[in-house]
Every structure is written in structure tokens, then in C-alpha cells.
Write a structure and sequence with these properties.
It is a single chain. This protein has helices spanning 10-63, 170-173, 178-182, and strands at residues 83-84, 94-98, 113-120, 123-129, 140-146, 149-157, 163-164, 188-195, 199-206. By secondary structure, it is α+β, with helices and mostly antiparallel strands. The protein has one domain (58-206): Roll (Pili subunits), CATH 3.10.610. Strands 1-2-3-4-5 form a 5-stranded antiparallel beta sheet, covered by helices on one side. The chain has a 4-stranded antiparallel beta sheet with strand order 7-6-8-9, covered by helices on one side.
Amino acid sequence: MNMRRRGFTLIELLVAIFIAAVMFAMGYGALSQGLKNHETLKAEQERLGKLQTAVRLLEQDFVQLTPRPVRQAIGDEPAQPALQSGTPGTQPVVMLTRDGWANPRGVQRPGLQRVAYLVEDGSLKREHWTVLDPTLASTTVKLELLTHVKSLTLRYMDANRQWQEQWPPPTVAGAIAQETSLRLRPIAVEITLDTEDWGTIVRLIEIAG
């Protein structure tokens, strides 16, 4: 006796489609969340990398600080100290002369470099001059290191192990010869970088004598 094959009823098909749709939605939601988490983690890693690069550059520049003043763009103006930093809130935050300027192309130029750090529109920027002793025609190269920056604050430890908020210290500069004051270096520098997302980062750098 032949028996007719029983097919799926409409209700069974609707139930199967509903279950498949629910499973697809759950899978899509998990996949979408996973991709979102991946992008968020990637952005945070990139952000952390930029933060580490900015701090590393600051540390390298101060470690290679050299006692070489530079002349002003206008010749009759007093020379700029090897390390120059005004009171908190002034821009640029600091200017300094550093050694060890990389020269992979073998260009004829000194290994010394004049650099400055400033905070503009919530961004930490590093600026360097294309020549050591600038003229009015000299140009600079400015690089944005980090965004979402509230402030960059520096303190300098003098020979008496006293912290100074500007350099050269005004009291010391008036007590010693001008040439010596221009070449004066601290024995340590405290860097405080206040950011919106990573909070406050503090680094203490010893300056070789």
C-alpha cells in the first residue's frame, strides 16, 4: 500500500523561518558588536601609541639637551638660552637645543636641532627649525603629536635641588654672567601631560651634566 509523503505545514514553515530569523538576528548582533569592539580597541591602541610617541619624544629631547644658545632672528636681539621656558600658560611651553638630530640622507648640516613644544587648540605639537640659528627667512616644521590635550606643564630642578617653574630661573639669571645663564641646564625636568582620556601622565627626566 502506497503512503503519501507528508510535507511541512504552513505553520511549521513559519515557525522554522521565525527561528532562523531570530538566530540570524542574534548572530548579526554578536558580529556587529564584535566588529564595533574591534574598532574601538584599534582606536584606543592607536591613541595609546600616539601618547607613547609624544612622551618618548619629550624624553629624548630633554635627555639630549645640549648647552648651545641660538641667536635671535634679528641680529641685535639677545640670544635665546639653550633651554627657554616661561611661566606656566605661555606659548611655546618650552624651546631647547638638542643633539643627535638624525641625518639618514647625509645632508650637510649640524647634528644640533632647535625644537619647541606648544599646545594649540587642544593638541600637543612639536616644532623644529630647519636651521640652528634662524633668520627672518627661516622656516619651521610643525608636527601634531597628540590631540585631546588639556595642558603641558614643566618644572625644572636647579643645582640647589629646588624646583623652578621657568628656565633660566630669574633669580639665577641675574646672579651670574649672561653667557653662563644662556648655557645653564637643570639637573632634572618634570613633565606633566594632562589629557582628556588618559588623565595625567607625569615623567621625571634626569639631565646629564
